[in-house]
Predict the structure.
Amino acid sequence: MKAWLRRNRWGLLALPVTVVLAVGANAQRLHDYWWDQDLRHEAATGGQGEWVAWTDPFSDATGDVTRTFQVKVTGSESTDVADSSDGPADLDLPSDLTGWRVTMDFEAQPDQVLFGCLLALLDDEGNRYYYRARANKVSQDIWPCVPQDHPGPMPSIEAGKPRTVFPGEERPSHWTARPVVVVPRSAKITQVLLWWEQPDYLAVQLN
Amino acid sequence: MTWPARIGAGVAVLAALAVGQAVDAALPVEHTDERPFVRAGGIGDRVHMNYADVTVDAVHTAKSLDTPQGKVGTPGRWLIVDVTVVAWGRPLSRPAMSLEDDSGRVFLSDPRSGYDWSSAPTGVRWRAQVPFEVPEDALHGATLVFSRDANDDRRDDVARIDLGIEPGDVAGLWDTQQVIELPPAQMATP
């Protein structure tokens, strides 16, 4: 037995490594079809009224880059109106629903790609209410965290082409966003979630 | 290695293979139970599932549908099912609805009808009118089948809602010249 162990020692040492590699090599589908298909990783977190900073890695046609910004949720309350391009407009919701407004201050360098962000509210029962630009009859900004007319640079979608900002759409370095999400009146909203690509997200705990 | 040890090792390997084969054969891998959990109901019942509550509010028939592409007629009838859906947890983006008649035939809603689901937001009563093109003998006993996803209802909740069409109702439903314009799926206003 001793002789056998000695003769096969390299094979035996390699065995656990091989098993790990074999399982790992087959885990791609788990990553693609499960891990990446939902919000799973709280990459940045903070509370209402405090600045939460996040450097989120992503890739576009220019390569692997990051977006860096910080956000402070200054308000979170029930509302009957939402901001449309023509100013505040009545949501005109059934009595069992309400608008929920989140007021957020943002700070980011104008060259950071914040275009295309997504937002959801989480209640205490785990329901996730996604931001929709169209809240009943009111058309809000398309993206909940950048100024509608000044979204800043868009990711590059063509190899070799740089990121572009449409003329006049440069983003300031400070701004405030006030998206409204329709939620049941009985829902107890506990968190604001902000993300671009799943599974990473930023979470702000509400008061 | 001595001869008895070699024979012993060989027997051990064969025994391990035999055990593996026996376990493999005993486990019902080929016959895993993947049936959905059926939640049954009738018209007006709020059928609760883990991803949504579904209510069939009414059914009616039409001879043709008024769509943006023009009138869409049928040699049969359009059986239109008014449903109210409340999604839980996440928005409900692609639920599947089909109609099953009492002989087991399945009818799907055809894009020709202009019907298109739009994602139901979480916690919001979301109303849709879903048209199915059916022959006369499919009306009696028709059941709406509602699932989360058209391609995969394995071990998931599925609602089966009896539309309550009795033999005596068929003639009345069939005898229609009505033209109906279907609104897009939208928030229910009381």
Remarks:
- Residues 41-205 of chain A form a domain with the Immunoglobulin-like fold (CATH 2.60.40.1240).
- The first helix of chain A runs from residue 2 to 7.
- Chain A has a mean pLDDT of 94.
